[in-house]
Specification:
Blueprint: H1 2-8, H2 13-40, H3 43-62, H4 69-96, H5 101-130, H6 134-153, E1 155-156, E2 162-163
Antiparallel strand pairs: 1-2
Helix pairs in contact: 1-2, 2-3, 2-4, 3-4, 3-6
Length: 169
């Protein structure tokens, strides 16, 4: 909904299309950079950085009517989004071990796919009902903050497993 949102707040379709095309292109830099960061630094911190950048990008996107926020969105969101795509699997392997890696990555990717299918529909529904995308960008921001909080609570367990703050494996 990048193009519809931008056109709804007065951007020309050509510019909105260009900005929408830049997001996946710029996310490539995040994929490479966060792959390297994950090999160099603690993977949990790298994923947290990715979610922080994604959330900053969403806040900036909700404010793109104020000019320079579009540049901030294009700096933060694609790098964080692309970066978490590569860093999450590495985090799962490091914190949960290899015995359940396939199952956990499958759950993570499956959940992500559900969000990818439902997200645009929910955004469109919200716009149709409210006449604005602002609320849904803030909801998506809150969801990313929730993911950030979940990752922040993960602790490395003994033997390659993981324990949550409650101490269960």
């Amino acid at each position: 909904h990048i193009m519809p949102y931008l056109t709804s707040i007065g951007h020309e379709r050509t510019r909105a299309g260009f900005i929408a095309a830049l997001v996946p292109v710029l996310s490539i830099s995040g994929r490479f950079a966060f792959g390297w960061l994950g090999d160099t630094f603690d993977k949990k911190r790298v994923v947290l950085l990715g979610y922080a950048l994604t959330s900053l990008g969403l806040i900036c996107f909700s404010q793109v009517h104020a000019g320079w926020f579009i540049v901030a969105f294009l700096v933060f969101f694609p790098a964080g989004y692309g970066g978490t795509l590569t860093a999450r699997a590495a985090l799962v392997r490091e914190y949960f071990g290899s015995a359940s890696f396939g199952r956990l990555v499958g759950i993570m990717m499956g959940t992500s796919a559900i969000g990818s299918v439902a997200g645009p529909w929910v955004a469109g529904f919200t716009f149709d009902r409210l006449g604005s995308y602002q609320v849904i960008w803030l909801v998506y921001f809150a969801l990313v903050l929730g993911a950030l909080a979940l990752v922040a609570t993960v602790r490395r367990g003994s033997g390659g497993g993981c324990t949550t703050p409650g101490g269960s494996p």
